[in-house]
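[09:14] KT: can someone run the structure on this one? pasting the chain below
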Amino acid sequence: MYQHRFLRIASILLVLLAALYSSHTRPAAAQSDITYTADSGFRPANDGFGFENYSNDVAYQNLTPAEVRVLFGDQVCASLNGNTCILTPPGQEWMEKVNKDMGGGHCDGMAALSSLFYVQKEHVADYGGSKSFDLKIADNEKLQREIARWWATQATAPANQQDVKGTPNDVLARYIKDTNAKTESYTVGIYQPDGSQGHSITPYAVEDKGNGISWLMVYDNNYPGKEQHIEIDQNANAWKYTTTTNPSEPESEYKGDATTQTLTLTPDSARLGSQQCPFCEAQAAKTNGLALAAVRYNQIWVAGSGTPGSYLNVLITDEAGHKLGHVNGKFINEIPNASYVVPKSGNLYDDSIEPFYNVPTGIKFTVALDGATLKQAETAEIAMIGPGYDLGVEDIKMQPGDHDELSFSPDGTQFNYKPSGSEAPNLVIGVQQPAADYLFEIKGFEVDAGASVQVNLALDKGTLSVGTKNATNPAQYALVVNRIDQKTDETFSHDGIDLAADETAYIEFGKWDGKGDLPIGIDAKNDGTIEVTTPETNQQK
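[09:31] RB: done, structure tokens below
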């Protein structure tokens, strides 16, 4: 009898020890004394990633043509051979600009993919693990590219047009309602009161702390495995959160109230649906691609070299004088139907990451790059990407106090660049056409201070003209022409082409056979008349 009693006591002790051990090893979120107003079941230590948010300083793979094709369908390919897609020139430019903007961090891709794993719209096993937290990012290119794919939906519609915005109380109520009803899953966007420094995290529960205070529990990809929270004061209709936009940066406090609308929700369903291609020509919507008809916007992308604390101001002005961009340190938008998107990536005011701007097609506008707030010289680039075309100026040397201006035609066929000082930028023009796509690169084109360079693409004539106005010195440049169709990818290149001051060169690409010389006509008087045509040899080897 005593032996049986001893065995029963021993068994009870073992159960108690096991329970004690379990209570010390289980995640805090699993404790039974926490009551959630809403709870999706997601937990950072299991369903978040085990690695930190990362920038482009780490040599991981971002978007490739394969992911762009998944986003928008076959219409993005100038040439498609099996699974090998060569992007159209506008598509290539768009991909490069999106990849560059990931330099501040991949938070939005990580927040979105971890949520999609949890709701089983994506599957962890496809990327080499049994749960999200155990996945490795190093040497896992498939996972790297997928994170980049979901990050890119910030730049696509309808994903970037269906954010839930409003007061903090509105956002909290919407999350509680949809989480309890299991009708939607979300990522959270947080911004500083002025709309800068976008960061993306994954919400998973709401805890009522009493006295009108609620904690929106979140997985922050800067803190793997940790339970973080956004504090929402429902009495004050305000919120606050402490984090960094990038693990290598110091912490900063985010906060907002009913007037800032800087706490947002992005529905996962908006990312999962077909995305509209911002750079595909109208005819492309008739192909077998998966995307919807292209949105009729011109996207303006501006990037600096990213020196901390030094940044450019960008201001877009239409013909009626309406403005979009920075005015006296604040964002304004007066252009009808225009918009801007602050990337949820990095610190705008510390590393020069600009919003990208959406200006409706059919509007002529200028873009001013203002270096008044630069603390040191920066290298900048700007591109306009529209339905079937892209125009860009790269390698712009901006000094503190410089004020450069670019004007664009609404249809993507013309632009004019006027720098503050002498410049030798690279000019990039891409076009998508039914028969063949073309990419033109005019490298190191020299422009005097006070002069301007004018570019005009005449598709009906098969010419691209480039010339200077008010110049006193001759220019020299290198020319690269890339022609892509379903069967061939041909390149012309020639270095050291001379152009006298205030002359215009007509690159007659319509007469190029894809291999040999390319004729270039010279308009010596800038009056539209070509006085002489010279066949330039193809130096491409």
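[09:33] KT: thanks! Residues 1-32, 283-295, 347-352 have pLDDT under 50 and may be disordered.
[09:34] RB: yep, looked fine to me
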